[in-house]
Write a structure and sequence with these properties.
The chain is built from 10 helices and 10 strands. By secondary structure, the protein is α/β, with parallel strands linked by helices. It folds into 2 domains: 196 residues, 2-enoyl-CoA Hydratase, Chain A, domain 1 (Alpha-Beta Complex), CATH 3.90.226; 46 residues. The strands form 2 sheets. Strands 1-2-3-5-7-10 form a 6-stranded mixed beta sheet, sandwiched between helices. Strands 4-6-8-9 form a 4-stranded mixed beta sheet. A hairpin with a 2-residue loop joins strand 1 and strand 2. Helix 3 packs across helix 4. The radius of gyration is 19 Å and the shape is globular. The model has no long low-confidence stretch (mean pLDDT 95).
Length: 260
């Protein structure tokens, strides 16, 4: 895949998407969001890809926010459309992707950058990372899911403080609050994240996809997550991965999941 604003590579089942706008600190503009959508869509459809890692180029920024110049002139309708289209095309799309997505946060993750990291299934941060939602300092609010996902991850009170102060938190604070799972030296970030990906790849991709769907169901308004889990649990019994996993366990050997 050839893109202007992102780089993609795949190695032994692990795909890496790198947002590559270093002169803009990897800020998200309309074109980058579109390219990210296309890359995630293609990689999710590739049966050889088991895990996707998303990161930013360089050592300064994962994504330092949205490209403000692109929407500074918008009115009410334009702003609402910007948020709705962005959420559908990228942020909700990533959250509901069947392939596991890990954010490797390699620097500033601000505004839309933090919202992208939060849309991923979990996050690993370099020790230089700083995270925040500074939108109220611009007279607007987080519009790519930030007001919803941040409280789910760190609790309402802390989320309110982060949003209202427009302040940044360190990687260590983010870990203590549950915003990121791990903090590692910047130089080890990608290797560490790929190590987690390798552990994920040992398991059934079909079961992982169903688990993602079941977990997400618990956060959807009007959806009973327990019922969704029961349904997904039952569906798993009809898969080849279930037959292989249980047979391998009984035969005391390593499972070789076909991914079906």
């Amino acid at each position: 895949m050839a893109f202007e604003n992102i780089l993609t590579e795949t190695d032994n089942g692990i795909a890496q998407i790198t947002i590559n706008r270093p002169t803009k600190l990897n800020a998200l503009n309309k074109d980058t969001i579109g390219e990210l959508h296309e890359a995630f869509k293609v990689l999710d459809a590739d049966a050889t890809v088991k895990v996707i890692i998303v990161t930013g180029s360089g050592e300064k920024a994962f994504v330092a926010g949205a490209d403000i110049a692109e929407f500074a002139h918008f009115g009410v309708e334009g702003g609402e459309r910007l948020a709705a289209e962005g959420q559908a095309m990228l942020f909700d799309f990533v959250q509901n992707l069947g392939t596991p997505v890990i954010a490797a946060v390699n620097g500033f993750a601000l505004g839309g950058g933090l919202e992208l990291a939060m849309a991923c299934h979990f996050r690993v941060a370099g020790d230089n990372a700083k995270m925040g939602l500074p939108e109220v300092s611009l007279g607007v609010i987080p519009g790519y899911g930030g007001t919803q996902r941040l409280p789910q991850l760190i609790g309402k009170g802390r989320a309110m403080e982060m949003i209202m102060t427009a302040g940044m938190v360190t990687a260590e604070d983010a870990k203590a609050w549950g915003l990121v799972n791990h903090v590692v030296p910047q130089s080890e970030l990608l290797d560490f994240t790929k190590g987690i990906a390798a552990k994920i790849m040992k398991n059934s991709p079909v079961a992982i996809s169903k688990a993602i769907k079941a977990v997400n169901a618990g956060y959807e308004a009007g959806v009973n997550g327990f019922i969704s889990e029961i349904r997904a649990f039952g569906e798993a019994f009809g898969t080849e991965d279930f037959k292989e996993g249980t047979t391998a366990f009984i035969e005391k050997r390593k499972a070789n999941f076909p991914g079906r």
